[in-house]
Specification:
The complex is a heterodimer of chains A (185) and B (265). Chain A has a single domain, classed as Arp2/3 complex 21 kDa subunit ARPC3, CATH 1.10.1760. Chain A has 185 residues and is mostly helical. In chain A, 78% of the residues lie in helices and 0% in strands. Chain A has 10 helices and no strands. Chain A is globular, with a radius of gyration of 16 Å. Chain B has 265 residues and is mainly alpha-helical. Chain B has 2 domains: 11-141, no CATH class; 149-227, no CATH class. Helix content of chain B is 65%, strand content 5%. In chain B, helix 1 runs antiparallel to helix 4, helix 5 (143-152) packs antiparallel against helix 6 (157-186) and helix 6 packs across helix 7. The chains are: A mainly alpha (185), B mainly alpha (265). At the A-B interface, helix 1, helix 2, helix 4, helix 5 and helix 8 of A face helix 1, helix 3, helix 4, helix 6 and helix 7 of B.
Chain lengths: 185, 265
């Protein structure tokens, strides 16, 4: 593997880990955010679109490290963060296969982003998150629908409101990095 | 003779926490600590309540002998409290545990019984045991020792290189993140309860600054490696050698036996 890809993986993973751990800090300043709030969500969508497999791997490893730093049980963390593979992986595949631009210049890019970068990945990732939380008994099993609804709302809000901003304004920075060029080539 | 302010108990910065070299857990090999962490995490949600309470007492004793600092608890306690709050909401408002005496019923069909409180405390205790084990591990192992641990477990060079970079970057980017918050505070941004749109705008601005600083670090590191002629992560990493005692081997064997017994049953 090229060294620049390792650098991108390392830094992106560290970013994910810190954002995951900082959820408690943001929850104190943003009122009424429901369960499932994670500031890493809008960034992991962008990492998936920009860096492909490296972005998806960084979303998984980074959120796993972040979960452990938050004190989540090891077995729970390793299972629950698998939802982030869907969250970052689905928009990556959609943008790659449908040849969309991360700068979201045209209506087609927006359509691909909303369908695969907010809706489909959000539904699957929130199903996974709520399912694992009830499976590990952190919430009672009867409350699955309530938990899923909360996950869904916050995932749609985070990916829908902040990811477009991240993609529009930070794609030029990402394009300078070697991993993006290697992926494009 | 130690320094006058700390009495010779120097604090060393780990990946996130400061820890004391006088901690008794520092005398145990990180590999033994890791095996204990895995064992506690694997069994804590499946063993009886008595075993969990005994493990919790053991964890509190370990925290005492590891001389954890107040600032470590200040960092970790809000996270633990937040998670306990989530568990409480789930069991208090959205559960249907029928054991025990019925206390009240909600209009949406869920109800609270005395069994609800027992189930809630049970899950919270099991979660706290896992969280304490993770904190104790992270507060007694430096990132260089983690890399040495991976090296002793014969991880490939690429994995070693990647994890070394991740552990070092976490420390650097945490300080970047803290600086961004300080700058925003200096500009008069109040970090108190805001409206939802204001909170999201603040989150967006912090994310923007944080991501730009991460990209700057990424570019800087890539350029340094390029100038030094490093193209592939094959350079051997010089790390410290881990020392082994019979106590470490005993701890690892004990943990392995417990894990095997758990998997068999």
């Amino acid at each position: 593997m090229d060294i620049s890809k390792v650098v991108v993986l390392g830094i992106c993973t560290a970013v994910m880990a810190i954002l995951c751990t900082s959820a408690a800090f943001f929850m104190t300043i943003i009122p009424g955010v429901p369960i499932g709030f994670c500031p890493a969500v809008p960034v992991m969508v962008a990492f998936g679109i920009w860096f492909g497999g490296i972005g998806v791997a960084s979303a998984y490893i980074g959120c796993a490290i972040g979960g452990l730093l938050k004190g989540f049980p090891l077995n729970y963390t390793l299972v629950v963060v698998a939802g982030d593979i869907f969250m970052a992986g689905i928009p990556y595949l959609a943008f790659k296969l449908l040849k969309s631009d991360p700068l979201l210049n045209g209506w087609k890019d927006w359509l691909v982003f909303i369908t695969f970068g907010v809706l489909i990945n959000g539904i699957i990732a929130s199903l996974w998150g709520a399912g694992t939380m009830t499976y590990f008994r952190l919430w009672p099993g009867t409350s699955f629908m309530v938990l899923w609804a909360q996950y869904l709302i916050i995932t749609f809000l985070m990916a829908g409101a902040i990811s477009p901003f991240v993609l529009r304004y930070l794609t030029p920075y990402a394009r300078k990095s070697n991993a993006y060029k290697l992926r494009a080539a | 003779m130690g320094c006058p302010s700390c009495g010779g108990d120097f604090r060393i910065k780990g990946m996130l926490f400061y820890f004391s070299e006088r901690s008794l857990l520092r005398k145990i090999n990180p590999c033994a600590l890791l095996s204990t962490l895995i064992m506690v995490n694997l069994i804590s949600f499946y063993v009886s309540r008595g075993v969990v309470i005994a493990t919790m007492v053991l964890m509190i004793g370990s925290a005492w002998v590891s001389k954890l600092e107040l600032r470590t608890w200040r960092l970790i306690l809000p996270l633990m409290t937040g998670f306990l709050f989530i568990i409480t909401i789930g069991y208090f408002f959205f559960s249907q545990i029928s054991s025990g005496v019925m206390l009240w019923k909600y209009p949406w069909g869920d109800f609270v019984t005395t069994g609800t409180f027992i189930a809630m405390m049970d899950v919270a205790l099991r979660y706290l045991v896992c969280a304490m084990a993770t904190v104790l591990f992270l507060a007694n192992v430096r990132e260089s020792e983690l890399i040495a641990l991976f090296q002793s477990l014969r991880f490939p060079g690429l994995v070693l290189w990647t994890f070394a970079l991740i552990f070092r970057s976490v420390g650097l980017l945490v300080s970047d993140f803290e600086r961004i918050i300080e700058v925003l505070r200096g500009r008069g941004v109040g970090f108190r309860k805001t409206s939802l749109p204001e909170g999201f705008t603040l989150l967006r601005n912090i994310l923007w600054a944080f991501m730009v600083s991460a990209f700057v670090r990424m570019d800087g590191l890539n350029q340094t490696l390029y100038l030094r002629g490093i193209r592939k992560p094959i350079t051997p990493i010089t790390t410290r050698k881990l020392s082994w005692t019979w106590l470490d081997i005993g701890i690892i064997l004990f943990n392995l036996l417990i894990i095997l017994w758990f998997l068999r049953n």
